[in-house]
């Protein structure tokens, strides 16, 4: 019997003309103001006009399908893409599975750290779509892979690659900043595992590197009235400059793909902040469709199918 694999990601605007719809969907039907829309369009323009996230997710899905077929044959697994905020939506992927006669599936979100406000909402949406059918099929979720050995190895190697760009003198005092998307601060009173999972990933990567010179920050907080977790990465850079640091490696461990939060919030905003502070910062490459990352995803799917 074929396993369906529901590979879920955030989704993205397909171009400037889609930005209003996309952010209206993110904001639960509330359109952005013209000021907010113009700011968003300027951010997209700064990274080339469009986020590459959807195309990267497509490549990840195709590569995962190819790897699973290589390991188990063409009929053992079938990968379906489901996006949270753009087509194909998670519900559309579930409908495609149902039409294809899928009787069991594995749910994998392209984010390693579980939160009830992030991965939890993807899985809830999938379960809700499945439950609409009189004969719902089984969905086995992969809730977290924050400590997956393959992830730790990939991030370790990405950091080693970036370290080589610094002089030997700079490397002698080169801190690593592990970052992830901020969430509303109220999750801290909910015993949500998200902050601890980011720390677990960072601790394991630092241990693999044999360093104690690392720290954590959050980024890309939403523009809402409630407080979000900090420190923000821009504030973190300011504090580090005040402490005498002149260089740093940024490892956005909470993100696996290039998208606006990486290409703008780090490569534009954080770089501008660093330049103003007289700091030299470098970012680790995103995992995207690196074959080693695809192998990791296939390993996760295989283990959940047992």
UniProtKB/TrEMBL annotation:
Keywords tagged on the record: Cytoplasm, Heme biosynthesis, Iron, Lyase, Metal-binding, Porphyrin biosynthesis
Keyword RNA-binding among record annotations: no
Enzyme class: lyase
Record's protein name: Coproporphyrin III ferrochelatase
Pfam families assigned: Ferrochelatase
Family per record: Belongs to the ferrochelatase family.
Transmembrane segments: none
MF GO annotations: ferrochelatase activity; metal ion binding
Cell compartments where the protein resides: Cytoplasm
Source species: Sulfobacillus harzensis
One of the GO BP terms on file: heme biosynthetic process
Pathway: Porphyrin-containing compound metabolism; protoheme biosynthesis
Residues annotated to bind Fe-coproporphyrin III: 10, 27, 43-44, 51, 122
